[in-house]
Amino acid sequence: MLSRLFAPKVKVSAHCDLPCGVYDPAQARIEAESVKAVQEKMAGNDDAQFQTRAIGIKEQRAELAKHHVSVLWSDYFKPPHFEKYPELHQLVNDTLKALSAAKGSSDPATGQKALDYIAQIDKIFWETKKA
């Protein structure tokens, strides 16, 4: 009798532990834009304290961008997306590697490369949202 009383009335399913459904590559793009902006500011400032702070911020933002890309890959994109966009696995891998390179570099070109990859993910993401 108690089992029927506490039995779920509605069955639900979700792709993650907390089905928020809020995904957007813009989160990764914003963090990667910050990485590139810091890299550009580092080039024009020789102050050691500034450089130390800039490196910390750049590395933190690159990690956040990597996190957001990884969440898209693991939580948002599903087998039908990977079937339709077979380049998606490699694109995510290339993006994560580019963000790692930007994390360890003061060259804004590395930040731009990461942004270019994120733009490709963004394009695929919005195509999947239309479907």
Automatic annotation (TrEMBL):
Enzyme class: oxidoreductase
Protein name as annotated: Superoxide dismutase, Ni
Source organism per UniProt: Streptomyces luteolus
Signal peptide stretch: none
Pfam families tied to this protein: Sod_Ni
InterPro entries in the cross-refs: NiSOD_sf, Superoxide_dismutase_Ni-type
Keyword Ligase: no
GO molecular function: superoxide dismutase activity
Parts forming coiled coils: none
Keyword vocabulary terms for this entry: Oxidoreductase
Enzyme Commission designation: 1.15.1.1
